[in-house]
What does this fold into?
Amino acid sequence: MKKQSAVGTTTLTTEFVLKEFLMVLIQVDYTHLVVCIICGIVYIICFILEILSFSFLIYAVSSVCVGSREVSSRIWWSMNLIFVPIISDICFAIMGCLLTEPFYAPLGGCYNIVMSTLCLIAGLCAMCSYTGCGNIIQIWFIVVGLFEIIAAIIHGVFVVFVFANLDEGEALFSRAPYKS
It folds into this structure.
């Protein structure tokens, strides 16, 4: 996509837009209440994507493809990996508003790294289950994979947000020895 300006022609790329978005996300000084609201919204969005994915896979378990064990192992892996972040996302959404302790932000950063990895693996397992056999239920595998990859991206972007908004006294991945 090219944009004409008086100076010349500039090209807007996805990389440029993503860098600008992350710079705006990092540079804004958020209050504690705003951070809590953003945390809650992000975790609820991830919860909705994960619960929809899990529901779609429960619906797909009764299909012929899974029942005949054609793709059952990848579906079960995907279901088990999706189930892990479902409950914990809601817990983190509630804890973000209740806790103001300095350990919450670093814990949230590490949690989002792990959940991003789990969601990505679950999404890939679901997408790898698509065999193209003609069964209409196979489309749900792609939808589940996309939902989980979107949730993984949201968790990953949220790591950047958490890292940028650490309060004083908090550290994420600090190598300094613990001092009492």
In short: The chain has one domain: 29-164. Helices lie at 14-27, 32-61, 64-67, 72-98, 104-128, 138-164. The mean pLDDT is 75.
